[in-house]
């Protein structure tokens, strides 16, 4: 692909899988590149691992603050929708749209539910759900992995974490998918779904102020920043962010990993025979390979030079994490799925700095537990249809994965 043919705003580029070729072209020819934008001035696209790490950690020079432009919504075909979704007065501020020190204060308000101790307490429940789901799909034989496992497990886990009752979970997930969408999701549909999530979180917070609970929403209902309760709009924003991030990105990671194992049966057999790999190199390679978050933006506070390109104060940079995770400067044979890769400094959870993903420990645990349970009960995985990718410029994921699961001859406990 030639540089003049690259258009990262093209949903079909991502739906066809040709985005890998486009990102490779940028890394080799223009790693700091001004994206053409017929709707105005495009962002500076960053595709090298080292640049993304630098920008992520230099938060004093590159802002996430929503009043400076926020973290998403930077290409012409998504700008209007993103602008409506994040700047409408009905919506509060997610803490990913804040700079330190405010970001840290909001982050600490919910951190107890995402730390190592919380993950250990949650793991038994996650395994219980995974055991049940895997047993069901093994009985069926042929399933859509996305719908049957990769969607359902994270949905149930984030609902459990936040205290959402079983009867409300499916409807809420429909709204989460709509708010995360671009391209084929109408602007009004996104706004309506934001409103539905906002109304539901308001009801949850009100209930927990009357009857305190130990779930994440109970924590949010009682949280204070600088001695003041978090505003209702900001509580609603954190609810939407946690629900979306917890369900969508983990789903995409599980699906990408299963696609890789279906293409490499030997690797699947190896993790089945050596499950300790799922607590180390295999798990980290699954995360690198999936790289579900396409990009976040930062907004330059001062003039900055990167590889000879001057990014002026007020301009936007867009960090493309899938590209960083296939960067030839950082990874040997980056287009090879290697469950023994070491070192593996992937950026699946961000490039470091204050915005490193707060949900990383829970995401890692869910992916590990699912594949531990799969390898106990499933001896091999075979594709029985073509994977279908999301045709969206803001999502790096597979939305349909038809597979045949062959049961293990003996169930390993």
Largest sheet, strands/sense/barrel: 5 strands, mixed
Strand content: 5-15%
Task: List the helices and strands in order.
Answer: HHEEHEHHHEHHHHHEEHHHEEEEHHEEEE
The CATH architecture term is Orthogonal Bundle
- Strand order in the largest sheet: 1-2-10-7-3
Radius of gyration over alpha carbons? 21 Å
- The secondary-structure class comes to alpha+beta
Distance, first to last CA? 49 Å
Full CATH superfamily name: Cytochrome P450
Unreliable residue runs: 76-88
CATH fold descriptor: Cytochrome p450
Overall 3D shape: globular
Q: In CATH, what is the class?
A: Mainly Alpha
- In total, the number of domains comes to 1
**Average predicted confidence as pLDDT:** 89
Q: Please give the share of residues in helix.
A: 40-55%
Work out the number of β strands: 14
How many helical stretches?
Answer: 16
Q: In terms of quaternary structure, what is this? A: single chain
Structure description:
It holds the Pfam family p450. This is Cytochrome P450. It comes from Pseudonocardia ailaonensis. Belongs to the cytochrome P450 family. With 413 residues, the chain is of the alpha+beta class. Helix content is 50%, strand content 12%. It has 16 helices and 14 strands. The chain has helices spanning 11-16, 19-29, 49-57, 76-87, 102-110, 116-140, 145-150, 152-162, 166-179, 187-210, 216-222, 232-263, 265-273, 281-290, 321-324, 360-377, and strands at 32-34, 44-46, 62-63, 142-144, 224-225, 228-229, 295-300, 304-306, 309-311, 316-320, 378-383, 388-389, 398-400, 402-407. The chain has a five-stranded mixed beta sheet, sandwiched between helices. Strands 4-14-11 form a three-stranded antiparallel beta sheet. The N and C termini lie far apart (49 Å). The model is unreliable at 76-88 (pLDDT under 50).
């Amino acid at each position: 692909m030639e540089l003049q043919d690259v258009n990262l705003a093209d949903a079909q580029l991502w739906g066809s899988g040709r985005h890998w070729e486009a990102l490779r072209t940028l890394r080799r020819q223009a790693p700091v590149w001004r994206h053409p934008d017929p709707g105005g001035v495009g962002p500076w696209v960053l595709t090298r691992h080292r640049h993304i790490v630098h920008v992520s950690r230099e938060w004093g020079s590159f802002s996430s603050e929503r009043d400076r432009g926020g973290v998403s919504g930077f290409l012409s075909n998504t700008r209007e929708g993103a602008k409506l979704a994040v700047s409408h007065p009905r919506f509060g501020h997610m803490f990913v749209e804040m700079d330190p020190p405010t970001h840290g204060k909001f982050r600490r308000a919910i951190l107890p539910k995402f730390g190592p101790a919380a993950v250990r307490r949650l793991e038994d429940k996650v395994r219980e759900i995974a055991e049940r789901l895997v047993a069901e799909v093994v009985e069926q034989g042929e399933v859509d992995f996305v719908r049957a496992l990769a969607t359902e497990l994270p949905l149930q886990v984030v609902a459990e974490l936040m205290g959402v009752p079983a009867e409300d979970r499916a409807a809420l997930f429909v709204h989460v998918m709509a708010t995360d969408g671009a391209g084929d999701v109408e602007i009004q549909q996104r706004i309506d779904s934001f409103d539905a999530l906002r109304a539901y979180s308001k009801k949850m917070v009100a209930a927990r102020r009357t009857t305190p609970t130990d779930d994440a929403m109970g924590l949010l209902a009682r949280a204070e920043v600088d001695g003041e309760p978090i505003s209702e709009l900001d509580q609603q924003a954190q609810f939407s962010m946690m629900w979306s991030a917890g369900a969508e990105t983990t789903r995409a990671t599980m699906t990408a990993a299963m696609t890789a194992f279906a293409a490499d049966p030997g690797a699947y057999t190896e993790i089945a025979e050596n499950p300790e790999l799922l607590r180390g190199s295999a798990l980290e390679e699954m995360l690198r390979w999936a790289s579900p978050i396409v990009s976040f933006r930062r907004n330059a506070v001062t003039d900055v030079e990167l590889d000879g390109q001057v990014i002026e104060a007020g301009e936007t940079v867009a960090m493309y994490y899938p590209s960083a995770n296939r960067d030839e400067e950082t990874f040997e044979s980056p287009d090879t799925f290697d469950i023994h890769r070491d070192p593996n400094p992937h950026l699946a959870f961000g490039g470091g700095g204050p915005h490193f993903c707060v949900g990383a420990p829970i995401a890692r645990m869910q992916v590990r537990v699912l594949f531990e349970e799969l390898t106990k009960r499933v001896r091999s995985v075979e594709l029985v249809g073509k994977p279908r990718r999301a045709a969206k410029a803001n999502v790096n994921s597979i939305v349909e994965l038809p597979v045949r699961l062959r049961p293990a001859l003996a169930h390993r406990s």
